[in-house]
Specification:
Layout: E1 6-12, E2 14-15, E3 18-26, E4 29-33, E5 36-38, H1 45-57, E6 59-76, E7 81-97, E8 107-114, H2 115-120, H3 129-138, H4 152-155
Parallel strand pairs: 1-7
Antiparallel strand pairs: 1-5, 2-3, 3-4, 3-8, 6-7
Length: about 160
Amino acid sequence: MRWKPNVTVAAVIEEGGRFLLVEEETPEGLRLNNPAGHLDPGESPAHGCAREALEETGHAFEPTALVGVYLARVAKGEGGEDVTYLRFAFCGRLGAHDPARTLDHGIVRTLWMDIDELRASAARHRSPLVLRCAEDYLAGARHPLSLVHTHASVTEIGGAHSGG
């Protein structure tokens, strides 16, 4: 069997010293996370991040920089399934909120937390990367969006090429 990490995208959204998070239902109970989710077929990581932020918070979001690329393993559920995540975390501009928009299934609410609250709630984080992404953001980690190149074969219908 070939090993394949789960590719995820996350929005690191900070305003006035507070980070926008989601509280979501998981098999392990209520957990805190960045607005984040799996990269969908046919989208770039930046586009996927904008989509996930909208779906999970009801806010438009425009990625302006890559905070970092992260790899983490998590044991999932009672069986302890070993899952590896490859996360692309972006920061950017938070846009308008659509109060009529229904949030993604499993999202209980959005909330704002400062870094001290985020550190104090680490046991409730869905991923060990939630705090790390915020810490890297506060340390000034910003990389150009062009660092992650999405070849046209990803977004074009019938544009797949063989090989990696």
